[in-house]
Write a structure and sequence with these properties.
Shape: globular
Number of strands: 21
Distance between the termini: 57 Å
Helix content: 25-40%
Radius of gyration: 24 Å
Number of helices: 14
Amino acid sequence: MTGRKPKSNPSCRVTRVVILGGGTAGWMTATALARTFGHALAITLLESKEIGTVGVGEATIPTIHWFNELIGLDETEFLRATKASFKLGIEFVDWARPGHRYFHPFGSYGAQLPGVAFHHRWLKACAEGLSMPLSALSLAGQLANDSRFAKPSGDARSILSTLGYAYHFDANLYAVHLRSIAEPAGVARIEGKLEDVERDPDSGFVRAITTEHGERLEGDLFIDCSGFRALLIDGVMGSPMEDWSQWLPCDRAVAVPCERVAKTTPFTRSTSRSAGWQWRIPLQHRTGNGYVYASQWCSDDEAAASLLANLDGAALADPRFLRFTPGTRRRPWVGNVVAIGLSTGFLEPLESTSIHLIQSAIAKLLTLFPGRDCDQALATRYNRLFNADMDNVRDFLILHYHATEGHDAELWQHCRNMVLPDSLVEREEQYRRTGRLILATDELFREASWLAVLNGQGITARDYNPLADALDSAANRAQVEQVASVIARAVPTLPDHDQALEAMLHGTA
């Protein structure tokens, strides 16, 4: 007996999606839906030129390649349009303690060898007398230190296979570039502001929104990309924020672009300050800078003065301030409204996760895309997955703040002494005791990221996986030293970052 084919019911399909808000989140969502569904979905995006976007999410992590592939983005056109540069990781200056710096590289440490994970080989060798920093085993970190760049190789035998990379780009230009892709793909943009929302009296679903000009936009599914205002998910559907200020006390940011320096560093830099931290993001045409700070211990004027005193070049604009509450909405999908971007909550961009969280939400929405009834089971699953994302990123950020020493400012004293989430305590203790990193399969930050930040912040392992004891000690040490030697020899043979970027832009790569 053959199984019956499921009967489709086109009348139950979502055929009209309305996106409230543009910016990075709105146009990423619109482009992804248009590329995925084609003409099966009518997509309308409402945005107003009068409403500014945050536009400071200029650094990304390697997961952005998934999104670029999804929408068929041409890398060279993207680099030109957004004034982008390549990014091999993030440098943390004065975080663990004053005068100390470390690097969170993209890619992996060591090499792909059979058996136990490579960092356990390194831990075993160190326990037996090897004196070698973890950083010597990262090609991405060593390239960044020398302002060089190379793309990963698909050949697992090549040390280039251990590389990962992302981008720095102008967030406003990125939204413009995505719009240039989305509109020809069928997305209809409406200029205007939200005036009114019409709901179904029985289900509570949003049926239409009306603009200030009286245009009525009907939809089956509504995406709230209205940023911190959260006009639909909070203002209409009543999904509250969960405040995480007890762990992440920074609640302000001030941003200033400045003139670029002669050489582009292929990494983001984060430097600790008395009341927070300063970012530095190098682009082709300028450098992005900002100070994320806690208003409890720093005034706006003090923050702006500190930022302006620590720029590479002349400021290109007046300081722009941003206020936020760190935290999340536990229900970013309610009824037929799905929040994406800042309307879901906010985590400071310490690890460049803002754009990742947008694309992660888009990926989940595509996987769980509903019918017109917006099955509650799908929403529940979406919310559970998104909560896990946010909780994991939250813990990773808290790790940077609490594992410090030598900082006397009140913010840092507070963070050293605060009560941590149980999930982070368990992870840290597991690594200290055993050198193990217990990660779920779908967590954003993988072994290399946790290794970099745990060790960088001074949390070190006292043991390693017993499987490593099956390795001959002398042979294991020789292998670890050989990998470090291969990395050291490879670095000077690879191109300068700016040369690699120019080759891409001019089609000679």
